[in-house]
């Protein structure tokens, strides 16, 4: 598990899966930590998680802000990206078609080579007349 602390060593967040950029890896957590967790209710002190003696449950706490999710680009940029992807798809399909044609030609050449080898092998088994 990883925790995130503020400048007063109060635990503001934790992650059971994944990690934080400035997270602190913790192996030993109190039994009620996850159940009772509230931002700043616990403090990270001397490598241990302990209850914050200065914790105040008053409404003067700042609400947790949701993450700012920014979408990539405008509608026009998305249309351009989509068009570029379509071009790449057409190019990839053309390459696959060319490779399939090459594969078919090579298969035909292999059949011809095998036939010639059989002819040579069959002719070697025949005893020439003297």
Write up what this structure looks like:
This protein has helices at residues 33-36, 75-125; strands spanning 2-5, 11-15, 24-25, 42-45, 48-51. The protein has 130 residues and is of the alpha+beta class. It is elongated. The mean pLDDT is 84.
Count structural domains: 2
**Could you tell me the mean pLDDT?**
84
Shape: elongated
Distance between the termini: 92 Å
**E-strand count:** 5
Q: Output the helix-strand order.
A: EEEHEEH
Q: β content, as a range?
A: 5-15%
Q: What's the main sheet like?
A: 3 strands, antiparallel
Summarize the structure.
The protein is of the alpha+beta class. 42% of the residues lie in helices and 15% in strands.
List strands and helices in order, with pairings.
Elements: E1 2-5, E2 11-15, E3 24-25, H1 33-36, E4 42-45, E5 48-51, H2 75-125
Antiparallel strand pairs: 1-2, 1-3, 4-5
Features:
3-stranded antiparallel sheet; 130 residues; 5 strands; 2 helices; alpha+beta; two-stranded antiparallel sheet; 2 domains
